[in-house]
């Protein structure tokens, strides 16, 4: 007979489990998978990786080497690709600190009295992001920009009891998909606001005509997905607030060092991607969702994730850290919690804190300026090629910028790839953009030689058309 607390395959226990869930066999659990795709037990030994028996360490290593040998390696310039995550330099000091066992093995500070070190690190993260964005309360933290946005929209629904959200028509399409998924069960909907095709700035007249008593929030990206800096950001917030709607801004953190932060522009909620803050590309994750709010009791109580507070010991002699407002969380309130996010990205938040501390205010400003100059240099050099318009949108930009080519983006990117250059994110399908429009990215990891090489190969491609 099986042990009641240990998973096992004792036949009597298995039959009882199947009976309780109402299926006749284990195979019935896989009925949604076509029969032709299922591997039968008698076929296991025919699989090339020796499935069905335990492989030796040598066999596993050899098999993995065979797989890795097929991966095409790019040792030239970093990819000129962004649009949500970007190539940035990660200082070795950051990697060293967050690789220490104290941080690397820590999960989450449920046992607050014995987690003072981790909570202090998360408190430092919250404080640094709050200062960077000029927002009062920061949580620690969400999975990525898109999940932080989804949670922000749910917060707006709970606070306002409204269901309509106004977003730019050039909004990051991947963020939009996630946001729609988050609000769909709550009957929420996203309504696009027009963007000027020449400048890339939000059409304020269209915004005015669409914001109404049903609008829960107005959301903009700053910088935009296209890289354009919204010069009317403060006015957009005023328009939202006049109709009783919240104002949500999505930001890229490094650029905040030289731009007016969301707190100064009237944002009620700020979200963003912490990936540029020392996380690297990491093959797609893990990343770090930033979520911050102004000092508003209702908004703070509706925030998901961890919030670490600073207090003192009973005798008042020492500082102490504690998780506050835990009644929002599912381990306390179960189904009545504000969110199901409790496995927060603690290690990623600590990484961002180490990165920001290492650079400091002056270092971050210098880095942001460096990126601004390099991205403008790249756009200017590309615009000198006959047939290329760069940037396509005339609004001020940083890091990301739009390019119109005299040929299909697929052919252009394939040609550059053949020269070991990864360049651009196609914009076709977004708003009015065509199959010849591309989003290019330049950061501090791209040298002048890298940019000149990009321009040289691009010109070679255009001449061959």
Summarize the structure.
The protein is an alpha/beta fold and 465 residues long. Helices cover 37% and strands 12% of the residues.
Structure description:
37% of the residues lie in helices and 12% in strands. It is α/β, with parallel strands linked by helices and 465 residues long. It has three domains: 11-67, no CATH class; 92-355, Type I PLP-dependent aspartate aminotransferase-like (Major domain) (Aspartate Aminotransferase, domain 2, 3-Layer(aba) Sandwich); 362-463, Aspartate Aminotransferase, domain 1. Strand 4, helix 9 (233-242) and strand 5 (246-251) form a beta-alpha-beta unit. Helix 5 packs parallel to helix 12. The mean pLDDT is 91.
Number of strands: 12
What name does CATH use for the topology of the largest domain?
Aspartate Aminotransferase, domain 2
Structural class: alpha/beta
- Biggest sheet strand order reads 1-7-6-5-4-2-3
CATH superfamily of the largest domain: Type I PLP-dependent aspartate aminotransferase-like (Major domain)
Rg, alpha carbons: 25 Å
Distance between the termini: 74 Å
Outline? globular
* Share of helix, binned: 25-40%
Strand content: 5-15%
In the CATH hierarchy, what is the class of the largest domain? Answer: Alpha Beta
The major β-sheet equals: 7 strands, mixed
Count up the helices: 14
* Count of separate structural domains: 3
Q: What is the averaged pLDDT score?
A: 91
> What is the CATH architecture annotation of the largest domain?
3-Layer(aba) Sandwich
């Amino acid at each position: 007979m099986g042990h009641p607390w240990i998973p096992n395959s004792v036949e009597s226990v298995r039959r009882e489990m199947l009976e309780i869930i109402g299926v006749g066999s284990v195979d019935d659990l896989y009925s949604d998978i076509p029969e032709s795709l299922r591997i039968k037990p008698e076929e296991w030994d025919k699989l090339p990786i020796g499935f069905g028996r335990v492989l030796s360490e040598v066999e596993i290593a050899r098999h993995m080497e065979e797989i890795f040998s097929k991966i095409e390696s790019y040792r030239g310039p970093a990819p000129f690709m962004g649009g949500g995550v970007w190539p940035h330099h990660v200082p070795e000091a950051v990697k060293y600190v967050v690789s220490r066992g104290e941080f690397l093995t820590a999960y989450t500070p449920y046992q607050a009295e014995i987690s003072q070190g981790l909570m202090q690190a998360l408190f430092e993260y919250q404080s640094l992001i709050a200062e960077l964005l000029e927002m009062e309360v920061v949580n620690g933290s969400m999975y990525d920009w898109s999940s932080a946005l989804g949670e922000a929209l749910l917060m707006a629904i709970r606070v306002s009891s409204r269901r309509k959200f106004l977003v730019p028509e050039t909004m990051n399409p991947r963020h939009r998909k996630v946001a729609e998924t988050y609000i769909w069960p709550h009957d929420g909907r996203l309504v696009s606001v027009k963007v000027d095709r020449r400048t890339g700035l939000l059409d304020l007249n269209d915004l005015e005509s669409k914001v109404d008593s049903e609008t829960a929030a107005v959301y903009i990206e700053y910088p935009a997905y296209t890289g354009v800096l919204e010069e009317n950001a403060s006015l957009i917030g005023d328009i939202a607030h006049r109709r009783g709607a919240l104002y949500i801004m999505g930001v890229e953190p490094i650029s905040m060092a030289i731009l007016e932060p969301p707190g100064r522009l009237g944002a009620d909620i700020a979200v963003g991607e912490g990936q540029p803050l020392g996380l690297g590309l990491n093959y797609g994750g893990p990343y770090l969702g930033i979520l911050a709010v102004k000092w508003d009791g209702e908004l703070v109580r509706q925030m998901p994730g961890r919030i670490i507070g600073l207090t003192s010991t009973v005798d008042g002699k020492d500082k102490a850290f504690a998780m506050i407002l835990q009644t929002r969380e599912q381990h306390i309130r179960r189904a009545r919690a504000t969110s199901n996010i409790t496995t927060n990205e603690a290690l990623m938040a600590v990484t961002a804190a180490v990165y920001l501390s290492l650079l400091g205010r002056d270092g971050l400003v210098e880095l942001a300026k460096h990126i601004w100059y390099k991205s403008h240099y790249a756009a200017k050099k590309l615009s000198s090629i006959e047939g290329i318009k760069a940037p396509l949108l005339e609004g001020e930009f940083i890091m990301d910028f739009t390019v119109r080519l005299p040929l299909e983006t697929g052919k252009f990117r394939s040609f550059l790839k053949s020269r070991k250059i990864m360049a651009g994110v196609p914009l076709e399908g977004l708003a009015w953009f065509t199959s010849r429009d591309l989003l290019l990215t330049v950061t501090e990891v791209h040298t002048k030689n890298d940019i000149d090489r990009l321009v040289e190969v691009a010109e070679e491609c255009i001449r061959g058309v």
